Amino acid sequence: MSRLIIVSNRVAPISEGGPAAGGLAVGVYDALKETGGMWFGWSGEVLSSGQPQIQLVEHGPVTFATVGLARRDYDQYYRGFSNATLWPAFHYRADLVHYDRHEFEGYRRVNAWLAGHLVPLLRDDDVIWVHDYHLIPFAEALREAGVKNRIGFFLHIPFPAAQVLLSVPPHRDLVKALCAFDLLGFQTRPDLRAFCDYIVHEAAGQVDDTDGTQPASIRAFGRSLRAAAYPIGVYPDEIAQLAKAGSRGKPVRTMKATLHDRQLIMSVDRLDYSKGLVERFRAFERLLDRSPAFRNRVSFVQIAPPTRADMHAYQDIRLRLEAESGRINGRFAEFDWTPIRYIHRQYERQVLAALFRQSHVGYVTPLRDGMNLVAKEYVSAQDPDDPGVLVLSQFAGAAQELTAALIVNPIDVDGMADALGEALAMPLAERRARYRDMIAQLRDNNVSIWRDNFLRDLNRGAADKPRAVRARAARKAVVA
To answer: I need a labelling partner for 424 at 20 to 30 A (CA). Which of 20, 132, 222, 371 fits?
Structure first.
């Protein structure tokens, strides 16, 4: 059986039970345990001096191969082009795009450097699965090093419309690099359409699209590849067990004691400008302003762990949120009630799942998101007999599947306030019906199914290739 090689920007921390993370990390690790394989990527360490050395750690049938980054590489590849150029552009924030030619050169250099570290570790029949926007040039670098293995790529964030992608000066180089993969995976059909639109209208390529049952065939830049949408899932039953177990913990007991039977609106997001946090706060304020009956009867908890704290855009959003929550609390708070609890720290998955289970509303309204697994985790954590209501942005990939949520436009503050009011007042029978619809969808497309579908199509390409070669030979024979 072929070995699976996972390549990601960061390799998940390892504990005795596997990676100490959820969602993607758990699904990927399960695949590696089943087939045996390797997880390769950055260790998270930034070195101020010395030459980074690759570290190999065996954990059962899985080899974890990690390497640190020099400070210059971290600044150019990670802080620079990945997160100051690609992240805002791919989240439709062209106004925040910062571009520096040297950072793009650093981005390509680090991808080639990482690929060079992986090449000596590869076997001829390995299947390589590369993840996310940090590593777009990775297959191109492997091809240049002579690697002929099957290589797939999955983009976890949105792929922008062609006119937005054009705001990134080396857009053509990026799309050409993507065409070095054998299979591209996107979160949603709209993301796939955006990529295909670029291929046809900006790269003069060809797309033989399908009805979605098979990957589209693409020809561009002298290369042939396939692409499809593979919406990532979660393990809903595992999250439900975490939620029940965590409900007995101190954080949940403390929360319930301080709520005094008030309804709870719950949000959990990384502190990022793509999450629509300011608009979310203002919609809650609008609810309290227009519907005084909810005052002192509902509390909103926003957990926003820090991320990329050394970048100015993230420092700015933190200051704005602190100002907004202080202003709103100053306007509506009473001696025994604080409307918004804004918590800037990380919590374990079990605690978050338990808090989701206790909340009446899950409030997930990003301005743009590839999938947003928080929405799926919120639904998974609910008590089937007394479930909460999910208020979900139409611009989250999860909205393509969780259609029984209350779908909102995160720019429409009044519309979000209306949805919050509807969710808080929703009858039990309707809440149960919406929950049943969404949990069935999550079970039908859990993270194992996402993973298996992608790897099936990637491996199927290898099986199809000899047939394609034979077909071309047959056509030549007919012509002769």
So the answer is: 371
The CA distance from 283 to 143, in Å, is 50
The reported pTM is 0.92
Query: How far apart (Å, rounded) are the C-alpha atoms in residues 102 and 81?
Result: 9
Single out the catalytic residue among 156, 171, 272, 360.
156
156 catalytic residue (yes or no): yes
Q: How many whole angstroms separate alpha carbon 267 and alpha carbon 416? A: 14
Q: Please report, as a single letter, which amino acid is at residue 227.
A: A
**Mean pLDDT, 10 residues at a time, the chain of 480 residues:** 91 61 66 86 92 91 95 96 97 96 98 98 96 97 98 97 97 98 97 97 92 89 97 94 92 90 95 94 98 97 81 81 96 96 90 96 97 96 98 98 98 98 98 98 94 94 47 35
Contact 97, 89 (CB under 8 A): yes
Please give the domain boundaries of the chain with CATH numbers for all domains. Answer: 4-233+447-475 (3.40.50.2000), 236-444 (3.40.50.2000)
Predicted confidence at residue 346, as pLDDT, reads: 86
Q: At what angle do helices 373-380 and 349-358 cross, to 10 degrees?
A: 60
91 counts as catalytic = no
Distances in Å between the alpha carbon of 193 and those of 198, 210, 227? 9, 11, 10
Please pick, among 132, 272, 369, 418, the residue that the annotation labels catalytic.
369
